[in-house]
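User: Structure please.
Assistant: Input sequence and predicted structure:
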Amino acid sequence: MPANFFTLPIMKRFAHREGLKAVAVLTVLENAINQPFLHFPSLYFIKHKMEHFGTSTWSESMENAIRTTKEKFIPDNVASLALWVPATIINGLFVPLHFRVPFITLCGCLWTSFLSLDKGVPAIDSEPTPRVAIKVRKRTAEEIKSIDHGLDLIDNVDPAPRFKIRLRSLNDANQCEPSKELATSTSKSNQKSQIDVCLGIPRK
């Protein structure tokens, strides 16, 4: 595409031979090569492989794609030409550079929606989609009673005994002196225990 083509007024673009030639080449490549010989075979290959993933080999899916492309060559390409020839010409002649990608993306969304409606139905011999079944069962009165009994047992368990901890330091005579109390608590049964911790290096 000539660099100055999009800077010209719209009417002068029709007199620009190089620009018109570039638009024509782009239209031919898209609609005479890409769509019939790359796009549709890839579409049918992926569709067949996804529908027969566990039973079809790669070569079988490729053969099916080629066969389906031949069978539906005329109606598929008539539909493709109806959209992509005008879209390519409009995009090449009239759409500003900064809007070309959004415009062609919008056309692609319309084309994908058409393909989904026209070819999205699974084949008759396609593999069923695996489903996950969730079974909901109401608990019996005996099960509820057993669960409640287990919860009661957990609630009645006496927690582990807690301790009174005192931190002590060594004096000159290598004896522990009370420094401060770190934590004090008692168990549920009011049984008290005490741990003395001496910090320091014994002197000889």
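The CA atoms of residues 36 and 92 lie 21 Å apart.
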